[in-house]
Amino acid sequence: MKKMLLLLLITMLALVGCQKKEPLTFKDKLCVLVSHADESCQIAYHFDAEVPLVFYENDQKDLMVAILNDAGNKALEITGAPQLFKQIEDGELFTWHGSEVTDQSVALIYGLADDSVQSVVVESEGNIQANRIRIDGDLSLWYVANKDGQLTMPIKVKAYGEGGNIIGES
């Protein structure tokens, strides 16, 4: 009887161990990649293969950026702007941050805006149209990244609403 129960238990454990696990999503894989440099990655929002970088949210609810090696398989440097989510929660229409990651020769301008912002132009970088990634409901991440490693100061950004009207500047 004991042998039969032991055999049944072993069989059940083997079946539990063989159950199919859900495959990781691309965003989950990005968080795993980033977690080697920052264990607090909670949500990966976007991967840019050209720079390469990953925008993500950490466990403190901060917007962070992981600069990756050229192969895109190792996080080399972490930077971020903890105040951005808070500023949007406090009613700001849009908010921006600039960062020069000199070790990797990457310059970033990135920010958050609600859905009233339809387009963002970074005037200080030659009127570059920012990339838009919807990250949560009515909130979008806008960014410009370049590999020359330098930003033109001061950073000048214009936000445009419906119909092309300027609705904000910084």
Describe this structure in words.
The protein has 170 residues and is an alpha+beta fold. The chain has one domain. 20% of the residues lie in helices and 42% in strands. The chain contains three helices and twelve strands, in the order H-H-E-E-E-E-H-E-E-E-E-E-E-E-E. Strands 1-2-3-4 form a four-stranded antiparallel sheet. Strands 5-6-10-9 form a four-stranded antiparallel sheet, covered by helices on one side. A hairpin with a 4-residue loop joins strand 5 and strand 6. The chain is globular, with a radius of gyration of 21 Å. The N and C termini lie far apart (77 Å). About 3% of the residues have low confidence.
Sequence of secondary-structure elements: HHEEEEHEEEEEEEE
| Unreliably modeled segments | 5-9
**Tally of separate helices:** 3
| Spatial separation of the terminal alpha carbons | 77 Å
| Rg calculated over all Cα atoms | 21 Å
Strand order in space, largest sheet = 1-2-3-4
What is the structural class? alpha+beta
Helix content: 10-25%
Strand content: 35-45%
List keywords for this structure.
170 residues, alpha+beta, four-stranded antiparallel sheet, globular
